[in-house]
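User: My instructor asked us to take a sequence, write out its structure as tokens, and then describe one feature of it. I'm not sure where to start. Here is the sequence I was given:
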Amino acid sequence: MAPPKGNKFGLKLKEPDIRQRAYDQYCDWLAKGKSPKSFSFHEGDVWCTHRTIQSYMKNNPDEFPAHKREAAFAKGYAYWESIVDARATGENQDADTPTLNMLMRNKYKWDHDDPEESEYGEDEKTKVVIVSMKEADDYDQT
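Assistant: Let's start with the prediction itself. The structure tokens for your sequence are:
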């Protein structure tokens, strides 16, 4: 038998302050360039995963400001771009070009972007990274 609608039996983060700590940790996680899917929050005997936080964000947008999450995501994106840039300019010879290409394509869904939001088409983004890195490799060999 299903619980009555509106019940709070499954509510994991009951207190507003603990929800905010979880949200802050979630945003910090994103700012490090980490995947939302690998996030989990643990405090004492209270825990949740990205699904709980995302559900709270969807159902309570006033409590979880989107600008904070978007800024964190942008910072995480910039982190990975800096690694790609360092490889392309030869500053980081240890960064593996195919792995970075796959990571950026999968993590940021380059193959699924809305063309109106994208500066490049889906194939162009990958091509820009590959050409830049090949040029850096060619430059290093001369």
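For the description part of your assignment, you could build on this observation: The chain has a mean pLDDT of 79. Try explaining in your own words what that tells you about the chain.
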